[in-house]
Amino acid sequence: MEKLVHDFIYYLSVEKGLAANTLDSYGRDLNKYLHYLKENGITEFGETDREEISRFLGVQREKGLSPASVTRSLAALRSFYQFLLKEQIIEVNPAKELETPRAEKHLPQVISCNDVALLLEQPECRKAAGKRDKAMLEMLYATGIRVSELVSLNINNVNIKMGFLRCSGKGNKERMIPLGSIAIKSLQEYLKNGREKMIKNKEEKAIFLNQQGKRLTRQGFWKIIKKYSRKAGINGEITPHTLRHSFATHLLENGADLRSVQEMLGHADISTTQIYTHLNRQKIKDIYNQTHPRA
Hints:
Shape: globular
Number of domains: 2
Helix content: 55-70%
Strand order of the largest sheet: 1-2-3
Distance between the termini: 61 Å
CATH superfamily of the largest domain: Intergrase catalytic core
CATH architecture of the largest domain: Orthogonal Bundle
CATH topology of the largest domain: hpI Integrase, Chain A
């Protein structure tokens, strides 16, 4: 059974070209399922049925998994069983007709323009690492890219002269995003007076480097943004995605059209981008309640 899961993840990677984060999530979900089956004395996927999968998902809910996580587990199982069907290991897909749990709708966390400015002021740019941190924070807010896209950037992904950034998002889809003047200035300063001091191997293509001169990881940047949010004294947990959400919300608040924001964020479906309009409407409602004499 473990080999079949391994073969499936390999299939998703090679033939479907799914992102590493998605592969990791599917792998974790399927390994939980494997553990559950073994605990219940099931040794072949052909022995499972719709009720068994439903019980597994129920156990996950009892353990406190969110509806979104349960939905992701079900998606992984559907895809996995479809793979087994394609490979003629099973005759029917028992996960196909299972109802998807209703996901809770959470509005994304956004911070104000003032708090963004405060956060971006925190790095001390006297040292190379400070110049790097400043450039990364400025670029994250200027472009709205995901942290995985940020740390994956190579030197040839940025055209400073034209003021554009090229990045590959989910499903390896490329998109071009404009860079603001402040982000360009911070990036130029880092490339000229920061990266050159950090690099150990001249063949290294990554823009953002760690102290060993290698590509900075997602986990490394999470630590960086947490450090500066604490230093800024901003209430609540600030994550790289907070700047992505703030980027989109602030654009829409200042008159950007939804399609342009969708394109910059790399959303395949505009309904994903529309959550930011809900956030904007909530802000308008709050302002109305605070200011209208008969609200």
